[in-house]
Amino acid sequence: MLRTLPYKTKQFFFVLLKISLVVGAFYFIYFKLTTNNQLDFKVFSRFLHENRIFSLKNITFLIILSCFNWLLEILKWQDLVFIFKKISFQNALQQSLGSLTASVFTPNRIGEYGAKAMFFSSELRKKIVLLTFLGNMMQMLVTVVFGGIGLYLFITKHQIDINYLNSFGFLTVLLVISSVIFLGLKKKEVTVKGVSIEKVIIFFKNIPFKNYLFCFMFSVLRYLIFSFQFYFLLQLFGTELAYKNAMIIITSMYLLASIIPSIFIFDVVIKGSVAVYLFSIIGVNELTTLSIVTCMWLLNFVFPSILGSVYVLNFKLPKNVES
To answer: Which of 88, 246, 253, 278 sits most deeply, having the most CB atoms within 10 A of its CB?
Structure first.
């Protein structure tokens, strides 16, 4: 039906779609800031002002950390795409931030897959979706590795009441699901959206090892930067914690928050709930913890989403798709 529409009509709907994405992203950000049941934005603002936490020096340093965080993500994406197509840093920047804005209100940032694919011609889109999956899974792997170590140290160091029966049941269900998926993957005739599992496996096997290595390194560096940013905020808010002890809790928090399905815009709520529980064990008050989580959300997601809105509005379809 779309193909039968006049060119100008299609252009109008395309512009309307871009504006709707940006307006939707801004509305959800505003909605989250003004209707947060855990932390009222006025209380949050007054708390920051009364404690005089943010000097120009501190704000500058925090923004620099956020910039490095996203710089590494952009370089990681550029290196992955280089496998099939050379793109400039500017293009990688546009695709990374633009897809972030477009996926803000989608569950678990699922919209990022389609948003990044839209920047490329149709014959490359399936590969781009798989590369996006690889980048996200590599970041998740780093979160699981660091988080697993941190959670183990946290449990052994603090007296945590764990329901081992429920934990065993959860692990059993997880093992069964993993086994079913593994057996399904072994059947080469299984297809997803017209793409066979066999072709997907071959696709990942053909990616050079150095690209996996660089992807892993970028993911580790990103993790270390935003974890240190969280620790730095803890220090600004007057929490006296040694770096090692703080990292045990921070890594545990990111692991537990990552395994809970969520809509990306409510990610701050989930991380806030997990962080409040973990940090309350060592005596950090709830307002301080929620304020730090909110600052992290503003610095690493809201700020780049606002920048990404410019790229969404200026986005143009590849010529072969537009025609």
So the answer is: 253
